[in-house]
Every structure is written in structure tokens, then in C-alpha cells.
Specification:
The complex is a heterodimer. By secondary structure, chain A is α/β, with parallel strands linked by helices. Chain A has 16 helices and 15 strands. In chain B, the strands form three sheets. An eight-stranded mixed beta sheet of chain B has the order 1-12-11-3-7-9-10-2. Chain B has a two-stranded parallel ribbon with strand order 4-8. In chain B, strands 5-6 form a two-stranded antiparallel sheet. The longest helix of chain B has 11 residues. Classes of the chains: A alpha/beta, B alpha/beta. At the A-B interface, α2, α7 and α15 of A face β2, β8, α1 and α2 of B.
Chain lengths: 428, 143
């Protein structure tokens, strides 16, 4: 690898132990990738120093708990080093428990204590506590061309595709090291030649609703895997929320980290611009049969029409989605057999509180929760058997992680299930 | 006779053991149970199967950015594979192999998914960029 003087100084320890350990990890990582150099980054999103019961019990070494976890786990160091003040623009993504709703989430006091302690430490080191999978809805919006180091597959695909900023899907260890060093391997999506589409998807049915976009995203991930698609055809102009659900689904069923939509995304003014020097290795057709099959796949873990849990806000709900939930609830109370949990960021909930949306949902029998979700937090209402979800990403993960049934449909289908306790979703 | 493939070191070291082969890419977070070392993804062909102490042979990684942290946790819990052989390089699998600290290799001169079957004995010498395979079942020559 070619290291700059700055990077060499970090590696040889002249910038302190933490920089050295962070750089050692980044060099191991860059060599694994076969990267030739690093790029500078001033936008890092990760889960630095976050602990949990397993890590608390595993690392019994004495010392400041944040230093211990950050050193031994985040930096994969065999030595505990003091974490310096973070000067790179860095934020903490989702994780831990909502301090206002931890009891609803079924968290133990010890879990809350660990979460709060980590948060206090991260904040005191200069890391912004966004506590969301949607940093771009909570004040972190990089501009086109910015080199970022982000975790969270749904945020990564949004960053590359919609914002035109540049990030690979980083992991916890690489983001925590980048927060200290401001460096990340110059590989993959940081490089122009890597960002062109390799595969084409012709969209041959209208794609309009949020549910439509979730299904198209899930299909895209299934056929594309880890490659880069360009979509062309019958879609309207998706708004931010539709991009959020499309990208999250594509990143879950496959490993899509960037997509192009001709006439929509910034690096795809034309089909030719999206493809660059590439000819599509394959062209897929998304028609009625593919849409039907995707819907059936997404509902393959639903059997019992009696729903006892409705989870919305994956990825974390935008304010407009919370407003829509309020409109659909229409002043009614949800069924006494159902729990309704709506997940969002602290930033969005603050506005939802001010608008009166949180109260409308509470009065209907639901609750607006921040910081986490049922999959990340492995938190369900007691005795949940059957969930209703409007997120293709969440239906991909939640039944597998928690061993429950789940239905996929529109937000309206889900609110209907919350009000009646029955799933009445219909295939498109 | 052993089959020899040559590739590129991802993480150095030498390990040998029984192969566990899949043609499905692997999800980390939400796709494995790190306490047991098992795959839990709903429609994965290895659902319920453990990779603990195996030579894991797979196309690569997919899904959540929690991949590395999940396999890192496998290392701490003692459920990690002994070595990883894969085809498609991604940041997820690169970082995951680094923090698992297991010999890992990619860019092989033949597709390991065509050559290696579950149950074969595989020695991964990542430092030299070589893997040796002893087949569990010798196939009769098709002539």
C-alpha cells in the first residue's frame, strides 16, 4: 500500500496509541481488499463503542468501559488504548434502547444502563447521537462526491444512489477506526470506475405506491445480488420515502449498495451515463409475474390471519409516514389484541411530538419509539405470534430472527390489521 | 491425489479441516446465530447448519453492514469457521475475515464452488495463496 506521511505517522505511533491501533486495523482491512491507498473522509456513521450484555460479560478487563470495548472490539486491538476526542464528523446510528420507552420494549434495567453509559461516552467524545438507521433524515446529508464511511446497508445504498456521495458498506470496526483517523480504504464505491451499472432491469409494470417500491426493491436484490443495477421503465418520480424502502429492500434480499434509475438518480441522467463503459451483463424484466412472485415470497412467512403486532418504521419512519399513519388511524382505537409500534429517529419524533402526531398514535393505542427497531433490538410485544409489516426489509429479517409469522402489505393494510386484528392484505 | 488451487491471500495463516460449501451468499447480522455458529436466514440452503470449525466455502457476503461485527462475535463465542474461501470480494467479507482472524483466500484460479464439496478435507495456506483439497468421495473418471 502507498501510505502518506500522515498515515505513516499514525501507524508508527507518533500520533498516539489509538491512532496507531486504528491505522493497524485499517491497513489489515485495506490489504484484505487489495486497496492501494486510503481516501480522507469527514463523514462517518457507525456504532462506536456500543456495548451489549454479551460484550459486557466477555470483556472483563479493568479500565474505562468505553476504552475497553472500543479498543478490544471496535479496533480489534489486543491492547486497551484511550479513545481520543473524535474530530472527524461522526455519528452514532441506531442501537441501544429508547430511554423513554425501554419498559415497553421489554428491556432490562441493565440493558438501559449499558445503552445510556455508551451514549454518554460517545457524546462526550464528540460523536453525534443520531440513533437512527436514517441519518439522512436526521441532519446528516452528505453532498454529491463526498467520501463517507457509513454502516447500515439501507443508509449506504441511499448515500450512493440518491445523494451521489460515496461509501462502501462499512462495518463497525472500520467506521470506528475511521472516526479516529479520518481514513478509509480507497476501494469500491469511492472510485469512479466502480460506480457504473453492470445489469439492467426493465420495469414493465407501474410502480407507484410505497408497497410497489418495496416489492421492486426486494426483486432487485434477489436478481442483482451484490452488483449494480440500472432501472428503466414504468416508474414515476419516487420521493425520498420510496427510495428509502426500495434501497432497504434491495440491500436486504441482495447486497445492493448502489442503483441507478434513468432520469431519477444523480449519476443516471441517461442509460448510457449509468452504464459508462459497461454493456449490461444481463437484462431482467420486472412484470406482473415477477411482482406476484415477489409478493408471495414476502408473504411466505404469513399463515395465521390473526395479527397481534403491527410494526412500522423500517427504515425509521419519515415525518410524512407518521402523518400518514395518523390519517389512516382516523381517530379510531386499535384492537385490544394488537400492539402498534412505530419506529423513528429522535429528530423526527421531536417534530412528531410538536405536530401532535405522537399523541394521536398514543391515543389510538400505539406508541412512537426511537433508537432501535424490533429486529435490531430483538424486541417484540409479549407473546407476539403474527406481525404485520409494510417494509420488505423488515419482513426479510424479523421472522428469521424472532421466529414469528409475518405479513407484508401497504401501510394501509397494516393499520387496518391494527384496527381489526385481522390481516386483509391483497396481492397487487 | 490432492487438488491444488491458487489464489490471493485476504488474511494470512494456515488452517485445515472439513469443508462446508454453499452456493448461497451469507448474511451476517440477521443471517447467523453467533452463539451457535449456525445459519438462520429463512430460505438459505444451509439454514440450521453450523460453520463452527469448518472451512467455509461460499460465493461471498450479503445483507447488513453488521456482517463483520456478527462474525467477530462468532470468534469471541468460539463458533467461527477455521478458514474462509470465497469468490466475490466485498467490504463485508474482507472486514469480517480480518476481525475473525482466520486464514482467508479469494481470486482462485478455478471456481472453488465447482471443485470443493461439503465433507472434503481442505487445507488453506493463505500466506502462500494455496489451498489443497482431498476429496471425501473420489469420482470415477467419466472417460
Amino acid at each position: 500500500m502507498k501510505l502518506t506521511d500522515d498515515e505513516k505517522a499514525m501507524l508508527d505511533g507518533s500520533r498516539g496509541k489509538a491512532h496507531q491501533k486504528a491505522m493497524e486495523l485499517l491497513v489489515r482491512y485495506a490489504e484484505a481488499l487489495d486497496a492501494e491507498r486510503f481516501v480522507d473522509t469527514d463523514n462517518v456513521a457507525g456504532v462506536p463503542g456500543t456495548s451489549n450484555m454479551f460484550l459486557e460479560n466477555y470483556y472483563k478487563q479493568p479500565g474505562d468501559r468505553y476504552d475497553v470495548i472500543y479498543s478490544l472490539f471496535d479496533l480489534d486491538s489486543d491492547e486497551i488504548v484511550p479513545v481520543p476526542r473524535i474530530t472527524v464528523n461522526s455519528c452514532h446510528l441506531q442501537g441501544g434502547v429508547d430511554p423513554e420507552n425501554w419498559e415497553t420494549l421489554g428491556a432490562k434495567p441493565e440493558a438501559l444502563r449499558i445503552s445510556q453509559a455508551g451514549e454518554t461516552s460517545a457524546a462526550s467524545h464528540g460523536i453525534r447521537i443520531l440513533k437512527t438507521c436514517t441519518p439522512y433524515l436526521a441532519g446528516n446529508v452528505p453532498k454529491r462526491g463526498d467520501h463517507c464511511a457509513w454502516m447500515e446497508s439501507s443508509a449506504v445504498v441511499y448515500c450512493n444512489s440518491v445523494l451521489g456521495a460515496r461509501t462502501n458498506t462499512e462495518g463497525r470496526e472500520s467506521t470506528s477506526a475511521a472516526m479516529i483517523t479520518g481514513k478509509i480504504p480507497d476501494w469500491g464505491f469511492h472510485r469512479d470506475e466502480f460506480r457504473f451499472a453492470s445489469h439492467r432491469i426493465d420495469v414493465e409494470v407501474p410502480v407507484e405506491s410505497l408497497m410497489d417500491w418495496g416489492m421492486l426493491g426486494y426483486y432487485t436484490g434477489e436478481v442483482i445480488g451484490e452488483r449494480i443495477p440500472v432501472l428503466i421503465g414504468q416508474y414515476g418520480k419516487p420521493d425520498l420515502i420510496r427510495h428509502k424502502h426500495f434501497g432497504a429492500a434491495a440491500a436486504s434480499s441482495g447486497g445492493v449498495e448502489m442503483y441507478h434509475m434513468v432520469g431519477v438518480t444523480p449519476e443516471a441522467p441517461t442509460l448510457a451515463a449509468a452504464l459508462g463503459p459497461n454493456k449490461p451483463a444481463e437484462t431482467f424484466h420486472y412484470g406482473k409475474a415477477e411482482r406476484r412472485r415477489t409478493y408471495e415470497t414476502l408473504n411466505s412467512r404469513g399463515k395465521d390471519p390473526n395479527v397481534d403486532y403491527v410494526m412500522l418504521g423500517c427504515p425509521h419512519a419519515a415525518l410524512e409516514q407518521i402523518q400518514e399513519i395518523c390519517r389512516l388511524l382516523d381517530g379510531k382505537k386499535i384492537s385490544s389484541n394488537v400492539r402498534l409500534w412505530v419506529f423513528t429517529s429522535r429528530a423526527v419524533r421531536a417534530v412528531a411530538d410538536a405536530q401532535g402526531y405522537s399523541k394521536i398514535i398514543r391515543d389510538a393505542g400505539g406508541v412512537v419509539i426511537t433508537d432501535t427497531c424490533s429486529a435490531i433490538g430483538q424486541a417484540l410485544p409479549p407473546d407476539t405470534k403474527v406481525a404485520a409489516l409494510d417494509s420488505a426489509k423488515q419482513v426479510h429479517y424479523l421472522p428469521a430472527i424472532m421466529g414469528i409469522q409475518a405479513w407484508f402489505g401497504s401501510t394501509a393494510d397494516c393499520i387496518n390489521a391494527a384496527l381489526t386484528g385481522r390481516w386483509n392484505g391483497v396481492a397487487p | 491425489m490432492n487438488i491444488v488451487l491458487r489464489g490471493r491471500k485476504v488474511v494470512g495463516g494456515v488452517a485445515e479441516g472439513e469443508a462446508l460449501v454453499t452456493r448461497d451468499t451469507i448474511s451476517g447480522w440477521g443471517g447467523v446465530n453467533p452463539m451457535l455458529g449456525t445459519i438462520i436466514e429463512s430460505r438459505h440452503e444451509l439454514r440450521g447448519v453450523s460453520f463452527k470449525d469448518k472451512i467455509l466455502v461460499c460465493p461471498g457476503a450479503k445483507g447488513s453492514s453488521g456482517w463483520s461485527a456478527m462474525f467477530h462475535t462468532c470468534r469471541l463465542a468460539g463458533t467461527a469457521p477455521k478458514a474462509v474461501v470465497f469468490n466475490e470480494m466485498t467490504t463485508k467479507i474482507a472486514l469480517g475475515c480480518v476481525v475473525m482472524r482466520v486464514p482467508s483466500i479469494t481470486e482462485l484460479d478455478r471456481d472453488p464452488l465447482d471443485v470443493i464439496e461439503t465433507g472434503d478435507w481442505v487445507k488453506v495456506d493463505a500466506d502462500r495463496g494455496v489451498i489443497e483439497i482431498r476429496k471425501a468421495v473420489q469420482k470415477a473418471s467419466s472417460g
